[in-house]
Amino acid sequence: MSTTPGPLCRKFVPVEQSEVTSISKPASFKFRLVSYNILAQAYVKSTYFPHSPAPCLKWKARSQAILTILKSLEADFLCLQEVDEYDTFYKKNMENLGYASIYIQRSGRKRDGCGIFYNQNSAELVIEEEIDYNDLVDTVEDGTTSPKEKYGVLVSGNKEEPKAGSKLKDSQADRGDPNDPRVRLKRDCVGIMAAFRLQNPSSHHVIIANTHLYWDPEWADVKIAQAKYLLSRLAAFKDLVSDKFDCSPPIILAGDFNSVPGDQVYQYLVSGTNSMGPEMADDLPMPLSSVYAFTRGEPEFTNCTPGFTGTLDYIFFSPSGDLKPVSYLELPEAESSDVIGGLPNYFHPSDHLPIGAEFELEA
């Protein structure tokens, strides 16, 4: 009999002393959303994860552990990043669990991408759009507005050498001059957004977006540009959905933003204050709040390796009287035995942890 530990699945915790839970209306509808960077197998190398037990890095073990976790979360929506093997593994296996899905693969030669998996008993897909951040290059080439003026992208900078021990998913090598904004903006990052009709008596519409922003901490200007483009696309998509279906859909934006709480990207997403260069408040297309900040405070970490431990993953939502988080997915503390030594391990098949929330939508 094997004594090897299996994947660990934490529980959803109700929001304490919340108006939402204390005066929950009978007509309200609840649904659960999880965001999870599952770690693409293409990036699983022992040199990147020397701290991980070798059996944990093998595709057969990892894929089954990921499926076990996804099933146990019992989510209505799963926003997954770093999904490779979509056509060969995830699409069919998730269908067997009752999930339909939409997916966008990263640009260039990248093998992974972002997917939204949705329980067909909970929601119906009505319209979707893909986001390719390489489209930002067009803002340089059309010459109408400088990338610095429109998106805050630097047109000069130093080429950074990879840091020792880092998991390099995107090397700068052979990409060209990093001072050229056309090169700088072409990072092969993507996102996907969709409107769903919920299978509740009121047939509410909700917009779900999933993305994975660029990783390099030295290239904050590129991440800011991506965040601005993302929110501008989301605003336009909301207008489209509102007009087409005569509704005012709430927005939930999830993903790996490769940004820690309080940094420039995070502050832009939640407050519209871009602290790069001259301080100024940008008018956001829509207000956004982070689920964890709203309910319990941002977690200590969502990514855990010996080289870096911190919070990079978020679920943002448009706060309104109609949509509120009523529970959140529990996360481990730094002293928890299941994360000591870093991830992936037998308990967690990715270097990231899943985050999640249950939302209540009033009729």
UniProtKB/TrEMBL annotation:
Q: List the GO molecular function terms.
A: 3'-5'-RNA exonuclease activity
List, alphabetically, the InterPro entries matched. Answer: CCR4/nocturin_mRNA_transcr (IPR050410), Endo/exonu/phosph_ase_sf (IPR036691), Endo/exonuclease/phosphatase (IPR005135)
Protein origin, superkingdom: Eukaryota
Q: Which residues form the Endonuclease/exonuclease/phosphatase domain?
A: 35-352
Q: Which Gene3D superfamilies does this one have?
A: Endonuclease/exonuclease/phosphatase
Chain intervals for the UniProt region annotation (Disordered): 142-182
Bias class Basic and acidic residues marks the residues at 158-182
Name the record gives this protein:
Carbon catabolite repressor protein 4 homolog 4-like isoform X2
**Whose protein is this, by species?**
Sesamum indicum (Oriental sesame)
